[in-house]
Amino acid sequence: MLRLGLTGGIGAGKSTVARRLVERGAVLVDADVIAREVVAAGSDGLAAIEAAFGPEAIGPDGEMDRPAVASIVFGDAEARRRVNGIVHPRVRARSDELIDAADPDAIVVQDVPLLVEGGMAAAFPLVVVVGLDVEERVRRLVGTRGMAETDTRSRIAAQADDAQRRAAADVWLDNSGSEEDTRRRVDALWDERLVPFEENLRAGRAARSGPVLLVEPDPTWPEQARRLAERVAAAAGERGRGVEHVGSTAVPGLVAKDVLDLQLAVDSLDDADALAAALAAAGFPARPKIVADNPRCPPARPDEADPVRWDKRFHASADPGRPAHLHVRVHGSPGWAYALRMRDWLRADPDARVEYAALKREAAASFGADPDAARYVTHKEPWFDAADARARTWASSAGWSVT
Q: Greatest CA span in the chain, whole angstroms?
C-alpha cells in the first residue's frame, strides 16, 4: 500500500483535501480523531491521564476536561511530556491497527497536523502539505469558525511556518482558490501520482523514466534530494552508514536528466539485501538485474580491479512525480568512493563540468530517444574511464579523502 502523510497549518483547508481523498477511495487515518479516541471515557488512556494529573483532569461528563489539562500543561514542559507520553504511543498503536486493517492495495492518508513540528516527514513515502497564505487563513478562521483574530494569530505562530512546511513537502497543494479548484487539484494528484505510485509499489517496480531528456540545472534538486535521503536513512536505520546525493544533479550548474541519484552506504551487501523490503516500503523497490558498477581502476591499484568489489544493489523510485535512483554500496568500496570523488571533482573543476555537459548533450542528441537509455550510458563510458584518472589526480592534490 501507499502511505501518504497529509498536513497543513490551522485554517489551511486540510480537512477539505482529506475529504476529497476519501471520496476518491483513500483510507483516512486522522491523528486528531484518534487522539480523542484514545483518551475517551472508559479508556485506559483516560485512566492514565487521571492518575497523572488527578480528578481535576476529568469533566463531569466523564470525558477528559481538555481546557483543564491545557491549563495544567501550559508553561510546564514536564507536564506536557507526561501528557504526550500517554497520548502519543496510543495514537501510534491505534494508527498502526487501522493501517494494518487496510487492503493491500489501499492508499492510506495519515492526517497528522503536527507532522512537520514532530519531524515525522521521513516516515512517509510521500508528504502532501496543504498551503494557504497566512492572512487568508486568518480571514477564514475568523469568518467561518468565529475565532478571535488574536487567538488565531497566536495559534498560527505556534505552528511551523510555510518555509518549514515547504522543506518537508513532496507536494505543495495550493488551497487559495475555491473549493472546486481544490477538488480538481486533489483529483489530478490522485489520478496522476497517487494511484500509479501505489500500483508501482504493489508491483515492486520503478516509475517509468522514458527517453533521455536533459534539462537545465534545477536549484531545488539538492533540497529534493535531502528529503529523499532522509527517507532512505530512516528506512535503513542502524544498517545504514549515511546517504549522499551523487550524480549530475548533485553538481551545481550541470545539465542533467531530471533524475536524482542517491548513494546509501552499508557495511556489507548482506545488509543491503536485508534492507530491500524496508527501502521498497519507503518508495524504492529493488531493481535486481543491476548488481554492479563498471570497474574503474588505475594500474597502480590492482586491489580495485576485482569486479566483486564493484558489486552493489540498485533501487529506483516508484513515485512517478519524482524519478530517483538509489545505489546501495559497501562503505569504503571502490564504487562508493568513485561516486563521491567524481561528484566532488566536477563540483571543483569548471572545465570538467563544461566538458562533461558537452558529452551529455552529444549522447542525448544521438541516443536520447532510446527507451532504455542503454546507448546513452554506453556512449559516455570511455570519458568516465579517462576522467577517473583526472579526478584521482585532483583528489590527491586537493587532499581529498572520504571515510
A: 83
